[in-house]
Amino acid sequence: MAGADGVRCMLLRGGTSKGAYFVAGDVPAEADARDDLLLRIMGSPDARQIDGLGGAHPLTSKVAIVSRSSEPDVDVDYLFLQIGVDEPTVGTTQTCGNLLAGVGPFAVERGLVDVDGDHAVIRIRLVNTGDVATATFPLEGGMPRYDGEASIDGVPGTAAPIELESGGIRPLFPTGKVSDVVAGRTVTLVDNGMPVVLVRPEDVGATGAETPDLLEADTDVRGAVEEVRLAAGPLMGLGDVADQTVPKVILVSPPAAQGAVSTRAFIPHRVHSSIGVLMAASVAAGICVPGTVAADVARMPAGEPADGLALDVEHPSGILTSRVRVAADDQGVWRATSASLRTARKIFDGTVFPRPRR
Ligand code: NQM
Description:
Blueprint: E1 7-14, E2 17-23, H1 31-42, E3 62-68, E4 76-83, E5 90-91, H2 97-109, E6 119-126, E7 131-140, E8 143-144, E9 162-167, E10 180-182, E11 185-191, E12 195-199, H3 212-217, H4 219-235, E13 248-253, E14 261-266, H5 277-288, H6 293-297, E15 309-315, E16 318-328, E17 334-342, E18 344-352
Parallel strand pairs: 2-3, 4-6, 12-13, 14-15
Antiparallel strand pairs: 1-2, 1-18, 3-4, 4-5, 6-7, 7-8, 7-9, 9-17, 10-11, 11-12, 13-14, 15-16, 16-17
The structure holds (1E)-4-oxobut-1-ene-1,2,4-tricarboxylic acid.
């Protein structure tokens, strides 16, 4: 810990999200004490998070806790925490593929990994899900290089590329089926790193072309989405999801531009301004399996390149390309991997002072 009240912290943009990154040893190990501290650091609960680091939206109210890993073939452990904005909640049931983009650079900055040469290849255990990801990014003088020519939709300008690869461990379809009837709608329950429910927009009273603001303002659509989500949670092995941030519900419709499929993602109560990395990976994998709700509306690119099929997932601010490999084993169990391009940027490094306890 830095000083009597201050905590060592780095703020990074990871992909299209932003979060506070901590070394595990700099925050309490005990969950209640850790969560209390993080709520006071982020300024929650408060719709504006005016007294803390949070940016008044779930996409900017995120925390990553990183430590050296004791697992074989893994460099660092990454625990993701979703900090409630206007609720005093700290969720551990999901991971975040966007914040994952900042984990490798943060680990190098804090000396948690040894690197040399002009590229780092960091193996990261996603503590929330048990998955393992590989992050590859450029180095300069032994430190992460943030500037570069890569661009991702939803972030202005360009930055250094970060390649993220993950997946392959868990079955793709938690119920073993490519579609299920949930709350009276035919949906696909799929998990390629993020548990999501793929739904046809018309089944929840939407078109799939709405802006996030319009969807958020439509209480009928939101009610139908939540009805599906609450019923899907137990079927996906997540138990009662009323107080959880997973599964995410994703409306899938035919592409509006040159992509494979168009999406609107509920995360789960606000609507994403783009789409999460692992959500897109789950959508992309879903597209590849005949009979899913997404396959039925998608436009597939030609060919099957050896390094995976690059699927352009359209979202409200552009596209996110997810390169997926999907296959069924002898027992008919589908598994998938994904690779995505992200960028990240160090915004500040220093000491954060939590709001005092009230
Ligand atoms: O799906 C938001 C984000 C995410 C998740 C959310 C994500 C992913 O930061 O990989 O990154 O789940 O609320 O975009």
